[in-house]
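Q: How would the structure tokens look for this protein?
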Amino acid sequence: MALGIIVSLITVSTGLGSKKAIKERLGDFSGHITVRSTKSNSSYNTSVLDNQGLDIKKIKALPDVATVQGYAMVTGIMRNENSFAGIIFKGVGKDFDSLRFKKFLTAGKTPFLNGEGYNNGVVISEKIANDLHLKVNDSIVTVFSKADQKPIYRNFEVVGIYKTDIKMIDEQFVVGDINHVRRIMDMKPDEIGGLDVFFKNINNVDEDAPEVEQFIGYKNYAEKATDKYPQINDWIGLFDTNIGIIISIMLLVVIINIIMVLLILIIERTNSIGLLKTLGATNGQIRATFINYTLIIMVPGLLCGNLIGLGLLITQKYTGIIKLNPNNYYVSVVPVDLNPWIIISISIGVLIISGMALVIPSYLISKISPVKAIKYN
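A: Here is the predicted structure in token form.
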């Protein structure tokens, strides 16, 4: 019983924790919902967001919306004497949510963006920094190309280094001043290529997305963070399947063991069953007594399982002692979600299901003859 509870708690808490952590990393970097022009299609070079029907003020006023930031993107190549890397330059402005982004920083800071002039500071990923042998305060040349035009060169200063553990992000994205993108893409000073919409709770993104779509116009479209990376979305979906399979196996093991306990109790108390029947106890009364007693025997196992399981989970949550390969799992530390309702539900659910499973084998008591039971040794 204790082992079943421990495995169930760890499976559910780490499974839900992983889903939440991956969604939050995707959403906190690129917006829980991204609004783009339909002209952009799947291109990384963003087209100007269409203003017809777009009402940013109403989007910001939605009760579940935390912040909204504008951006524009263009592809380029960072190069130096050591190597080169293809990058997606994501330009952001003075509405950039630097506090939300701060959790990804491993060195340096985010550039100060006031919307005026051109800030040459950029934040690159740890992966790009290692490939190009860059560190904070280093300079790097970036080349941007446009159709039928000469390459455009920009010299940037690395002011920060980030790491999200999401391979598709860390291999490509560089964050800098949106005015550089506007200049390269011939955009007007007030034009943007998209909106990053952040909600107060990413778990409500499916319910909140339709509300945002009301105010984006018919020439723009909204895309959820997980939909941008279908392979990650499929990976997240596997957690539900794995949790269901493991919980089912553990529950089956617990039920089989608790039925064995009941059968052993019936065999050991055969004489008592015969005596109770002789004294006038009904089969239903005796069965209820044995079922209740068996469930009481489970309680120490439930308590021990919860204490050990929660102890292990709390240790992992606050120490991060167990690491993961982010290339395979999209997180570098096993995440834990300690939801008290789920923890309580597991224990109560095990008790209820076990009690229901004991009903059928308890009918063995009705087959016991009082005369033979009293003589049974």
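Strands lie at 33-37, 65-79, 84-92, 105-108, 121-125, 139-144, 152-162, 173-177, 194-199, 220-224.

The radius of gyration is 30 Å.

Upvote if useful.
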